[in-house]
Amino acid sequence: MAHRCAILGCGGRSRGHAKAYSLITRGQLVAICDMNEQRLKDYGDAFGIKTRYTNLDEMLRKEKPDVLHIVTPPTLRVGLMTQAAEAGVPGVIVEKPICIGADDYKALRALNARSKTKFVVNHQLRHHPKLLDLLKDVREGKIGEVKCIDASAVLPMSGQGVHVLDLAFAFNSYAKVTSVFGAVSGYDDINGTHPSPKSAELLVSFENGVRAIVEAGATALRCDDSPNAKYAHMHKRVAVYGTHGFVHWRMSGWERSLKDGTVERGSKSYAEEDNPAQAGLTNALFDWLEDDRKVSPTNLSTSLDEWLVLLAGYASAVQMKPITMPLDPPDDLLAQFQRLVGATPKK
């Protein structure tokens, strides 16, 4: 029987979630919800979804979805995820970033500990076909023992840096982080909901000896050479260096070293890979719902571990020293960072 699925939030980003259902056989979109009635109508008409709500509680009560997609600003995460958990929704896919600061990070840690709901963060890049191909190479030891990871995004850390941070974790098999050294400058706040440094760089040390450099913002490498290079979000990449070679993933291309010392290169289409990737992420949640042993790689616990690395970067910049992990971040850490870079903390 197909999983009953619903979407909260009918903005532009949400359309990628809905489009993926054209490739999904184990789930069906049964309802949508948005407070904006015109947006709700346009979205429902576009995807042929007749059951529409402007009230989330009503939709959850009447439709009893197995999966809820929460595609709303990050400032609303805690309340909406709590609402879904208290309504008994079995599975929830939440857009990134999962948090904006330390207080909501702690609230979601507590929610995850007490809730039976299986939360997944929408890092769909983790399921892009070529990324999976390169990840398989690394895990099969084709580049030897991983030593260093270099990841970057031109948009700020909370906007797109979290994507490449997630990929760095994946390529290092989610090893435990031991310390974080961070540098930040300037301030950015996309749509008033994504507070972040204009530029940030993190040096992340892992328990297995691997080090990762994660850079996001204005000073990051512009790495895309496709016709879409004018769009800042296209400049995301991750390179993984091992004892016997490397792999390099970009939004529109890839590289990997071969045993004979040559380098294989290719191009790819982000647009063509993103729909199957979104379907793959959704199917990964279905797998987890059907078998507790098949935990989704972008589960909430792992995503919060990644967010804590970002918070440690803020703390490192504020305190001007490396941060030993795990960190218990102060609730006002975001405000401390904002004051550091000359921004006015929101009350």
Topology:
Layout: E1 3-8, H1 14-19, E2 27-33, H2 37-47, E3 52-53, H3 56-63, E4 67-70, H4 77-86, E5 91-94, H5 103-114, E6 118-121, H6 129-139, E7 146-153, H7 157-171, E8 177-185, E9 188-190, E10 194-196, E11 199-206, E12 211-217, E13 236-242, E14 245-250, E15 253-257, E16 263-267, H8 270-290, H9 300-319, E17 323-324, H10 333-340
Parallel strand pairs: 1-2, 1-4, 2-3, 4-5, 5-6, 7-12
Antiparallel strand pairs: 7-13, 8-11, 8-17, 9-10, 11-12, 13-14, 14-15, 15-16
In brief:
The chain has 347 residues and is of the alpha/beta class. The chain has helices spanning 14-19, 37-47, 56-63, 77-86, 103-114, 129-139, 157-171, 270-290, 300-319, 333-340; strands spanning 3-8, 27-33, 52-53, 67-70, 91-94, 118-121, 146-153, 177-185, 188-190, 194-196, 199-206, 211-217, 236-242, 245-250, 253-257, 263-267, 323-324.
